[in-house]
Each structure stands twice: as structure tokens, then as C-alpha cells.
Amino acid sequence: MMHRYEVRLPYALSDTLAAAFPEYELVQVAPAQTLLVGELRDQTDLHALLARIADLGLEIAEFRQDNWPFDDRQFDG
């Protein structure tokens, strides 16, 4: 199952830095904040994203897994 993640960076990204994340939607949510939004398959994808952010010297202001679309299989009883 794919999981959608949102990573908030505490600044706007330059075009050069934004190009490092072609598979993610980049949303400028404030004058000095960027939200990376995308789907990851597993922990390997997650660690690769976090490593890429670290390798570029970027800081993470917030990181969260979004449960959209809602998966009601977790409530099968």
C-alpha cells in the first residue's frame, strides 16, 4: 500500500533545489515555507527521501504521513 507523506521545509526552494524532487508536488504554503507532497511505497523510499533532503543540507520543519485516501480496511472486524 502506498502512503502519502508531507514534508514541510522552513523556506522557499530555489528552482535548482526544487529540481531535486521531480517526483513530488511542491507547494509554497507561506512566503518562506515549502511543502513536499508525494507517495512512498515503503521504508526504503522513505529513507531515500530523508537522505536526499539531508544530502542537500535542507532542514525539515514538519514531517507527517497523511492517511488520504482513507483506507477503511484497518477497521474490518
H and E string: EHEEHE
Percent strand: 25-35%
Rough outline: globular
Helix run count = 2
Order of strands, widest sheet: 2-3-1-4
Radius of gyration: 14 Å
- Unreliable stretches: 72-77
Description:
With 77 residues, the protein is an alpha+beta fold. It has one domain: ACT-like. Chain A, domain 2 (Alpha-Beta Plaits, 2-Layer Sandwich), CATH 3.30.70.1150. It contains two helices and four strands. The chain has helices at residues 15-18, 43-55, and strands at 3-9, 25-30, 33-40, 62-66. The protein has a four-stranded antiparallel beta sheet with strand order 2-3-1-4. β2 (25-30) and β3 form a beta hairpin. The longest helix has 13 residues, at 43-55. The protein is globular, with a radius of gyration of 14 Å.
Summarize the model shown.
The chain is 22% helix and 34% strand. It is of the alpha+beta class.
What does the secondary structure layout of this molecule look like, with pairings?
Layout: E1 3-9, H1 15-18, E2 25-30, E3 33-40, H2 43-55, E4 62-66
Antiparallel strand pairs: 1-3, 1-4, 2-3
Key traits:
77 residues; alpha+beta; Alpha-Beta Plaits; 4-stranded antiparallel beta sheet; 2 helices; 34% strand; globular
